[in-house]
Specification:
Elements (H helix, E strand, L loop, with lengths): L3 E7 L4 E5 L4 E5 L2 H15 L12 E5 L1 H7 L5 H8 L3 H8 L7 H19 L6
Parallel strand pairs: 1-4
Antiparallel strand pairs: 1-2, 2-3
Helix pairs in contact: 3-4
């Protein structure tokens, strides 16, 4: 299964996605709907040589600023402390004032993955 990566950006009306490899664009009100629309856009793009494209083939790539804007429930100061990063430095990355190095980006992404994995292991009772 070939993966298709869409670069996601927040717009005034929702979100837009662009697949550089095939010059395919799409938009949606929310990021989750963007994946469905990306499938449809790619199928339309390949209509002359039909392909079956599944939602799990669509990768959504967000810039760090976009990620924290979309998931604004993540407190960047608390998250920075969790991953052992200077709070003010992460805030500058989140606001787009500074661009993180590849190493710093990997550190942030790994911290998000670790947090997600930890949350998945929780058994919350009412």
């Amino acid at each position: 299964m070939k993966p298709y990566t869409f670069i996601v950006e927040r717009t005034n009306t929702g979100y837009s996605g662009f697949c550089e490899e095939y010059a395919v664009y799409t938009a949606a009100d929310d990021v989750l709907s963007l994946r469905k629309n990306a499938v449809e856009a790619l199928e339309l793009y390949f209509s002359e040589e039909p392909r079956v494209i599944k939602p799990q083939q669509i990768g959504l790539q967000l810039e760090l600023t976009q990620l924290f804007a979309f998931y604004n429930v993540i407190n960047s100061s608390a998250f920075a402390r969790r991953i052992g990063m200077n709070e003010s430095l992460l805030a500058q990355y989140v606001l787009g004032l500074k661009r993180p190095s590849e190493k710093q980006t990997r550190r942030i992404v790994q911290g998000l993955r670790d947090l997600g994995a930890e949350l998945l292991k929780l058994d919350v009772t009412p």
